[in-house]
Amino acid sequence: MQTHDSKRAPSLAIHPSIAQAVLSATVAQAEVRAAADYLAEAMKRIHGGNWRVSIDHMSQLVTISRNFIEPPAKPKPEVV
Length: 80
Known about the structure:
single chain; alpha+beta; 1 helix; two-stranded antiparallel ribbon
């Protein structure tokens, strides 16, 4: 006889292909973020200053722009 535990939420099975699609999308988003962060760091090394990354998946747009509000960081000597 099966009993019902009122304290536990019912478990839902997720189809493996859906789980794989979600995992792939999450990995891809992490790759995009890592690439954008890398470019922002390169811009900082070249031009100094602080750079911000904005990723908008709805508009499919990634921007890397200088943040003029924060005090500027100095470029590293090997680039100047």
